[in-house]
Amino acid sequence: MNVDLASMICDAVEKLYFQSSLMKIIFISEFVTVIISFGLANLMIFAIWEARALHFNVRILLICVIITALRRIHSAGGVVVIASTIFLAFERLIATCRFENYENRGHKLIGLLLTFLLCAIAVPVCWRTAPLSDTIYPYCAFGLNDYRATCDISYALFGIQVVALLIFASLWYQNVKKMPQVQRFQKSANEQPHTLTMRFQLRENVDTTRLMLPIVAINSLFMLACSIIYAIFLPPLTPTTVLTTDVLRSVVDYAPISEAMILLYPITTMTFMLLLPVTSVHIKRSLRRLTGLRRCFGYETNVVDSIDHAAGRDYFEQLRQQWA
């Protein structure tokens, strides 16, 4: 490295890290939000595991999502978070197709298999190292050395999130549409005790898909924002780019934008953690038990729609037959 080039890099580093108030504010914000998101994520892991009302497969896959979310701020950990939503969508797809006996049989093997596949993706992706480059930049960021590959990956991840969002929306619609059919079947002359399990599984499918819809929607918006930022602001660098004054200027200009995007990672994780108890009553109750907030809010009273006496008699008669 010649003296002039070293001097340019030092000047760029001083301007970026010592003279920029914006970068200092972003770094402090990252430090605070990462600590908060880490604490919320660990608390949510215990809350989900203790929410026994949720199906085992849903709990274990949600825990995998949160664990990988803790790693997403480094390297390509976000790839695993995006992929995990597809695995959850597959699990709910199986639950919807086999709703007649999915809850009875448990199908824990499905959850364990999907978890194994997710971990098989997570380990090499989360711990991979960035490609080596002979060029030294005053700022380092994932994808900075390969503009084309970074843009292509972000577009692919956004497409995966859109597909997952469509799958969850379709599953929610299908499960809601099946509810009246099961209720009509329950009132028919050939009703069987197993219709109670069917109704329960359908309600769980509706609740779980409704839980995932806002989460996947937020991830989709996040990946859309990343794709737009990469397409507009990411410098078109390659591993063989020759370092010049213009290249240094483009890297320095991109650095605050990149750090602001990195700041979105813990913010998205925090939003994800806050949405879980809001959209799932089982997780909310488990969280209140763990934190002791149940004493502050008191005991919840479930409010259900009124039903006619005939439907009530049918329901409890089925319970009696099932427990006999």
UniProtKB/TrEMBL annotation:
Transmembrane regions: 25-49, 56-73, 79-97, 109-130, 153-173, 211-234, 254-279
Q: Which GO terms describe its cellular component?
A: membrane
Cell compartment(s), UniProt: Membrane
Superkingdom to which the source organism belongs:
Eukaryota
Q: By its UniProt entry, which InterPro entries does this protein fall under?
A: 7TM_GPCR_serpentine_rcpt_Srab (IPR019408), Nematode_rcpt-like_srab (IPR053286)
UniProt keywords (A-Z) are: Membrane, Transmembrane, Transmembrane helix
Q: Which Pfam families match?
A: 7TM_GPCR_Srab
Q: What is its main location?
A: membrane
- Is Transmembrane among this UniProt entry's keywords? yes
Asked if the record carries the keyword Transmembrane helix, the reply is yes
What does the record say about its membrane topology?
A: Multi-pass membrane protein
Protein name (record)? G protein-coupled receptor
